[in-house]
Amino acid sequence: MFNTDAKVFVAGHRGMVGSAIVRQLESKGYNNIVTRTRSELNLLSQADVHAFFESEGIGEVYLAAAKVGGIHANNEYPADFIYENLMIEANIIHAAHKNNVQKLLFLGSSCIYPKLAEQPMREDALLTGTLEPTNEPYAIAKIAGIKLCESYNRQYQRDYRCVMPTNLYGPHDNFHPENSHVIPALLRRFHEAVEQGVDTVTIWGSGKPMREFLHVDDMAAASIHVMNLDRDTYDANTQPMLSHINVGTGVDCTIRELAETIVKVTGFQGKLEFDATKPDGTPRKLMDVSRLKDLGWSYSISLEDGLKDAYHWFVENHTDARL
Fold it and tell me: Which of 30, 115, 184, 210 could be cross-linked to 284 through a Cys-Cys bond (beta carbons 3.0 to 4.6 Å apart)?
């Protein structure tokens, strides 16, 4: 199934997802992986991206490059989130098409679904309701990426596929105290609380929202699995639905339960408090992953084991991590 000789461009290879995809590709024997740093290729420049594709002869693309962040970052920098994500995906998808790249995988986000979507969220929930306001600009950009792929497939018979991951975590995550997602933010805070002997850690929100989490190595494995499915098999499982597939565990937990597991992983001995005056965000986000299971893939890393792995990576690399 795997064309290990294909020239594969992984956009965003230094990010959490992109680096995991590179690791997975290498483990499967891929020997012609192309990467570019931000200083080497400006993905916001249409001219630069087109010149890159024209010169490199790319065969497959994993589009993992994106501007990402948690509730605080999305609230503070909405223009940056919508502009940069729209430009990155439009430039890469169009350049891939213009240079006759037939296979591309676009990585989206579960925030594309309406705030009050029926749980678990099915692929056909897209565009059926109002988005969560705190990350609406980012979500709209990701929806546009799905529609770009779908439109190039319809008009030009391309094979551009989309996977919509649930909340991801793992090595190479962003551990900034304000601009990161919930798992890296909490791992860092509890780690520092242990180091400093702090008695109490306060967490935003009520602790009641339900969230689903997937280790990034599982996400990378799912991405490569979906990319290499026979086209008839993939099409049969995405039509008449929109051309995207959910990727997750199908299992969720409360933020309180997540925090209690992180307490266990980090060895924090103090008290947990929840600040209900802070926003909770979407009440529940759980993916319906039955379509992906029908395509022969399911997750393998439990939440506690994944958190241990992410925390180990942070402890070993936190001086160089994105803080």
Answer: 210
Known catalytic residues? 138
In this structure, the number of other CB atoms found within 10 A of the CB of residue 28 comes to: 13
> Known binder of ligand: residue 41?
no
CA–CA distance, 256 with 14 (Å, rounded to integer): 31
Task: Map out the domains of the chain with their CATH numbers.
Answer: 8-173+213-250+285-301 (3.40.50.720)
Query: How far is residue 88's CA from residue 233's CA, in Å, rounded to a whole number?
Result: 29
pLDDT band at 72 (very low <50, low <70, confident <90, very high): confident
Packing angle, helices 303-317 and 182-196, rounded to 10: 60
Overall average pLDDT of the 280-302 stretch: 92
pTM: 0.92
Please, are residues 301 and 218 in contact by the beta-carbon 8 Å criterion? yes
Residues 6+ apart with CB under 8 A from 77: 69
Tell me the Ramachandran region of residue 287: left when phi exceeds 0, alpha when psi lies from -120 to 50, beta otherwise.
beta
Handedness of CA 216, 168, 311, 315 (dihedral sign): positive
Q: Where are the alpha helices (DSSP H) in the chain?
A: 16-27, 46-56, 71-76, 78-98, 136-156, 182-196, 216-227, 231-238, 255-266, 290-294, 303-317
Q: What's the CA gap between 318 and 323, in Å, rounded?
A: 8
| Ranges 22-26, 276-280, 289-293: which has the least confidence | 276-280
Q: Is 306 annotated to bind ligand?
A: no
pLDDT tens-digit map of 195-207: 999 999 999 899 9
Asked if residue 29 belongs to a known ligand binding site, the reply is no
Over residues 132-172, the pLDDT tens digits come to 888 899 999 999 999 999 999 999 999 999 999 999 999 99
Bridging pattern class, strands 60-63 and 167-169: unpaired
